Every structure is written in C-alpha cells, then in structure tokens.
Amino acid sequence: MFDYIKGYVTYLNPEYVTVENGGIGYQIFTPNPFLFQINEMEEITVYTYHHVREDISALFGFLSRQDKDLFKKLLSVSGIGPKGALAVLASGDTTGLIRAVEEENEKFLVKFPGVGKKTARQMILDLKGKLNDLATDETFTLFTHEKHEQRTENEKAMEEAKEALKVLGYAEREINKVLPTLAGENLATDQYIKKALQKLLK
Fold first, then answer.
1. CATH number, domain with residue 82
2. What is the model's pLDDT at position 67?
3. Which helix (H) or strand (E) holds 45?
4. What percent of the chain has pLDDT over 70?
5. What is the distance between the alpha carbons of residues 65 and 78, in angstroms, rounded to a whole number?
6. pTM of the model
7. Region annotation Domain III: residue ranges (predicted)?
8. Minimal CA–CA distance to 146: which of 95, 190, 176, 87?
9. Which of 14, 47, 62 is the last residue of a domain?
10. 8: Cβ–Cβ under 8 A, 6 or more apart, which residues?
11. Does 13 lie in the same domain as 49?
12. Whole-angstrom Cα distance, residue 102 to residue 23?
C-alpha cells in the first residue's frame, strides 16, 4: 500500500518513530528507532511495509529497500511475526544471518529473541538460497550509515538502549550482562544498541 514515506521525524521512542507528512503523523515501527533524529527541518525517506492481519494493522519502516525486502522474507517464515523479524534486523549482521541460513547453523539463529530450534529450522528450509541477492556491500544500513550526533548524556543513552533491547525481546537479565561492559565508551544510543546486540549474539 505504501512503498515509502517522505517526511519529518517528530517523535521517537524505543519501539517506533512518528514521521509527519502533509499534516499526518505516521506511526512507524522500526528495528532501531534511535538511528533517527527528531528534526522537523530535515526530510527523510522511510521505506515502509503495511502489515495487516485480523488483529493488527501497522506500518513498519526501514532506511533502505534491502532492509524492507529482508523483513518481508522473514515474515514469510512460519513462526516469525513482525516483532521477531524486527529483532533479527536490529542485529545489523546480514552477512552472519545469510551464512547461518546457508550453512544450516541453527545454533546462531536461536540466539535471536523468539527463535527456537523449530523456527530456526523453518528459517533454513524457507530462506536457504533466497537471501544471496541481499548480500551486497550496501546491504542494510541499520548500523553503517552516518551516525547522528550524540543525543544526550551517557546515562540517558544507556537507558534508551536498554529499553530498545527490551522492545526487541531480550530479557533484562541478558541485557544487564552486556550493557555494563560498555559503560565507559561514551557512545550514542544506537551505537550502544549495536554493540550490545553484537555481544548478545556471540
């Protein structure tokens, strides 16, 4: 229904961003909202997917068409819903995901929130041989695009990262094992999320 939306980010939280276009604020769920910056002067393009089921009608948004395409492929897997697909995308490790699917590495796949052995096996069955077209140098800019200036002081960035990881489905005990190890790095929220995800997936 919507291929993309051009507009201005007017609000964000750990789960979604609001992009205003033509006086309408679109609630867009995205893997890592803190990659966006509230800026009513800078227009951005968000590639969107309109997910409709009996109990849900929601917009999901991505910084590139490749991200959107992978999201759709993940949704085609039995056992993976929108939240699970976002959690996989949030890792930013496209190469690792493709390699795990092609090599039938269930051990890697079950590290994602909500992915058990049965779902991991289904991912392999449904996606093997179908992701290689996404494995380019420019694939997924979730964590490689130009970083925004640091949003706030270090403590707030850490707290925002923690809330975002909870939204993705990670347990607080898991988060508390990795975030404190990054405390001295003085990073922006999205960088904390990226590094925490890298540790959680090891």
1. 1.10.150.20
2. 87
3. strand 39-53
4. 90
5. 23
6. 0.72
7. 153-202
8. 190
9. 62
10. 19, 20, 21, 39, 40, 41, 42, 43, 44
11. yes
12. 45
Q: Is residue 189 part of a domain?
A: yes
Residues 6+ apart with CB under 8 A from 48: 2, 3, 4, 5, 26, 28, 59, 60, 61, 62, 68
DSSP code of residue 38: -
- Residue pair 140/64 in contact by the 8 Å Cβ criterion: yes
- What pLDDT, on a 0 to 100 scale, did the predictor assign at position 135? 62
Q: Quick check: is 144 in a domain?
A: no
Decide if pLDDT at 142 tops 60: no
Domain that holds residue 53: 4-62
Reduced to 3 DSSP states, what percent helix, strand and coil does the chain have, rounded to the nearest 5? 45, 20, 35
SS3 6: strand
8 A C-beta contact, residue 192 and residue 164: no
- Residue 140 in domain: no
Largest CA distance in the chain: 48
